[in-house]
Amino acid sequence: MTRDAVSSGGQHRVVADTFTTMHDSGVGLIGDIGATNARFALVQPGGGTTTARVYALTDYGSLSEAIDAYLTAESPSVRPAQAVRRMSCSIIGRRGMRR
Q1: CB-facing half-sphere around the CA of 66: CA atoms within 13 A
Q2: For residue range 36-94, what is the model confidence (pLDDT) as tens digits?
Q3: What ranges make up the beta strands (E) of the chain?
Q4: Residues whose CB is less than 8 angstroms from the CB of residue 40 and which lie 6 or more positions away in sequence, other chains included
Q5: Which domain holds residue 41?
Q6: What's the CATH number where 31 sits?
């Protein structure tokens, strides 16, 4: 299962290319979490996605708070039971370093 967020001309969008197992079982949350911003979108039961929203992580005390803010703003009819996230981190040598 693959999920990526890409930037194109300054606009961020969530690419919904291989999401077969999650979308069959209801609404899902997808996220791209970077060092300064997080992008979230919902995957609908048919596989379509909502427009990604961008959140500055410094505005929240935790990733959970940013997710809660997104879900409050998006107001899905049911809360997502599943999530896929992509996180970036600094690479030093052959090891990733978590911030």
Answers
A1: 23
A2: 899 999 988 888 889 999 999 999 999 999 999 999 999 988 888 888 877 776 666 65
A3: 2-8, 11-18, 28-33, 37-43, 53-56, 82-87, 90-92, 95-97
A4: 29, 30, 31, 52, 53, 55, 66, 67, 70, 74
A5: 2-97
A6: 3.30.420.40
Report the helix count and the strand count for the chain, using DSSP H and E.
2, 8
Q: Give the CA distances from residue 78 to residues 45, 55, 81, in Å, rounded to whole numbers and listed in that order.
A: 11, 21, 9
Domain count, the chain: 1
Q: How far is CA 29 from the centre of its chain?
A: 6
What was the pLDDT predicted at 6? Answer: 42
Contact call for residues 81 and 25 (beta carbons, < 8 A): yes
Predicted pLDDT at 17: 42
Phi, psi (degrees; rounded to nearest 5) at 25: -110, 20
